[in-house]
Each structure stands twice: as C-alpha cells, then as structure tokens.
Amino acid sequence: MRKLVGRNFARLRHEKGLTQEQVEELSGFSQQYLSSLERGRRNPTVITLYELARALGVSHMDLVRPDGAADA
Fold this sequence. Notes:
By secondary structure, the chain is mostly helical. 64% of the residues lie in helices and 0% in strands.
C-alpha cells in the first residue's frame, strides 16, 4: 500500500506539473517527507492523505486507487 500511494502521488504530482518543493509549500510537508513518500518508505495517515490530495487538487481516493483502475 505504501508503494501504491507513493506511485500515485508521484504520478499525480507530475500530471499537475508540480515539483516536490511546490507541494511542500502547498501542503506544509517537507520535501524530504514527500521524497520518502514517493519511494514508498512512508506510511501516511488518513489525515496526511487528505492534506496531500488537497494540495494536489485531487480526491484522497486518487492516492489509494489501485494501479490501472479507471477514474470513478
């Protein structure tokens, strides 16, 4: 699940054209945390998922959606 969230976060961040530093400014989470998250080394809480999704302008469900799943 950590790796799935990390992949989804990285993909969505790239789709939005944002750097980790820009997401840091939007979310308040450090660039180091975001980097670890993208590598699947962090186990984010539900609140963290919500805050990160808000910073990206997506649903928190987009961060936990299985690879290849169609948009709901």
